[in-house]
Design a protein that fits this description.
9 strands
């Protein structure tokens, strides 16, 4: 059965805005939760560079890479107004370890 062109245009006129609305309503703070049963290695001591105006230092941390931990070196985060940087960290809950992503806190 063939759909008349005017009905096909109407269908697209409704579907496209709905698709954009679904993408726009996705929360920016959604995170992937990482749960591991193996404790991370001790945090490495890194030298913290001198102050850099407009940036906050995000210290290095261990990231789970599927079969083991890999070190991610520290880096600068652009400062957000009226917020402080809370670094990511591993948190033990029972036998599991959860990665809590770094974030800006007001």
């Amino acid at each position: 059965m063939r759909v008349p062109p005017s009905l096909a245009k109407l269908r697209y006129a409704l579907i496209i805005p709905l698709a954009f609305a679904a993408l726009a309503s996705t929360p920016v703070y959604a995170r992937t939760e990482v749960i591991i049963q193996q404790a991370p290695p001790p945090v490495r001591m890194e030298p913290i560079p001198g102050a850099r105006p407009g940036y906050a230092w995000d210290r290095g941390h261990w990231r789970w890479q599927g079969r083991g931990y890999a070190w991610v070196p520290g880096h600068w985060q652009p400062v957000r107004r009226n917020a402080r940087w809370e670094p990511g960290h591993w948190e033990a809950r029972g036998p599991n370890w959860y990665w809590i992503e770094g974030r800006w806190v007001r």
